[in-house]
Amino acid sequence: MIKNVLTHVGGIGLYGIVSVCLFFTVFTVALIFALLKKRPFLNHMSALPLADDTYSGPCPQLKGDLRHE
Amino acid sequence: MRRREFAAKLWTKNEEAEMKIDTFKYDNRIVRAFAIATIVWAIVGLAAGLLAACELFWPGLNAGLQYITFGRLRPLHTNAVIFAFVGNGMFTGIYYSLQRLCKARMFNDTLSWFNFWGWNAIIVAAAVTLPLGFTTSKEYAELEWPIDIAIAVVWVAFAINLFGTIAKRREKHLYVAIWFYISTAITVAILHIGNSIEVPAGFLKSYPVYAGVQDALVQWWYGHNAVAFFLTTPYLGLMYYFLPKAANRPVFSYRLSIIHFWSLIFIYIWAGPHHLLYTALPDWAQSLGMAFSVMLVAPSWGGMLNGLLTLRGAWDKVRQDPVLKFMVVAVTAYGMSTLEGPLLSIKSVNSLSHYTDWTIAHVHTGALGWNGFLTFSMLYWLFPRLWNTKLYSLKLANWHFWLGLMGIMFYAIPMYWAGITQGLMWKEFTPDGFLRYPNFLETVLQLIPMYRLRAIGGTLYLIGACIGAYNLYRTAKSGVFEGDTEVQAAPLSEDKHPDGSGHRWLEGKAGLMTIFAVVLVLIGGAVEIIPLYLIKSNVPTISSVKPYTPLEVLGRDLYIREGCVGCHSQMIRPFRSETERYGEYSKAGEFVFDHPFLWGSKRTGPDLHRVGGKYPDAWHYNHMEDPRSTSPGSIMPPYPWLLTQKLDLNSLPARIRALRKVGVPYPEGYEKEDALKDLQAQSAKIVANLQFGSISNAPPDSEIIGMIAYLQRLGTDLKAAAPTAALETPATGTELASNPQP
Question: In which domain, by residue range, is A7 found?
Answer without folding.
Answer: 2-63
